[in-house]
Amino acid sequence: MRIVPVLTLILAVATARVTKTESPKEVLAQINKDSFGNSVLSVLQLQLATGGPVGEIQILLNNIASQLNGDQKKADKVHESDTVAFEKIIADLEQEIAYHQTQIVALSNLRDSTTEALGEAEAEVRVVTSDIANNEKSFADESATRQSQHDTWVRKDAEHVDQIDAIDEASKIVQHLQAGVAFAQLKSRFEKVQAKLMESKHALFKPLINALTQLASKVDNKSIIKILELLAQIRQQLVASRASLLATEERQAANWEVQSSHLQEEHKRLVERKAFLENSIVQFKVTIQEAVEDLEDQTLFLEDAEDSLSIQERWAAEQESQYEAQTFEREQQLEVVERLQEVLTQKLSAASEFLQIREEVF
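Now predict its structure.
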């Protein structure tokens, strides 16, 4: 029956502000300020007046102190566990934030570098497109030039063949005249050859034409020998000229083969380069788009992680504040218990002494 009022007294004391310099009278005065504490003190005074032992009160005070210390140890353990868990959460969030920040920097660099590469590729593809057009024009121009050279050679070579044939025919006619064949029998052939040589309008044939014209009016052995010598010289010059033209044609053909091969290889290289650049441009655009999207995602992830970190820090601060407040409250309660124990053990060792202080204070 005495435990409840005494425990109530201790709880009342726990709510009072006590300092070590206060006297027993002051301690009791603080307790007495509470209406319920006043009633408890009255019950305690009555209990002591009837011979109740002070030691029983001390036991209760010791139990309260033990309970407070036990509660504090439990609170310390929970606080320590919460602190470890919080530090792990904070470390994970900070690591996550660092990761997202690194990703944002990497993605930003990728976006910027790829954008720069895209611009360079687009500029180069314009240059390569122009180079392809120039290459194709050069090939067409050079091909036309080569075709013109070949056509000229074909025409001149045919002229040389006709001229050589005419010279050979003239040589046969003159040889027939030298053998005694009458000019009248060779006149038709002679006039055809003469007309063919005159059609060529080649300066090389002018002396020959004059000589043949004279031979048509007067055939003599001396003139025949001179004409045969002239025909041989002219034929030799025509053969040499034809051979020179053929050598020029072969040289030009060989040069064109090398040049056309170079132009075709260059064209192939340029077309492949353009295809590569166009494919690269497509890939660059895809990479930029993906980088932008990933950058947006990483930014959102970073904001979420930062928000979570802020929430965790506020929660930890609240828990720490609550822990410190409860710890402080228990320390205050323990101090009150210790002071009350001091009052009861040192100052109120006898009922008469307590009654005396009670009468003096109240």
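Helices lie at 3-14, 24-32, 35-49, 54-178, 183-200, 206-217, 221-347, 351-361.
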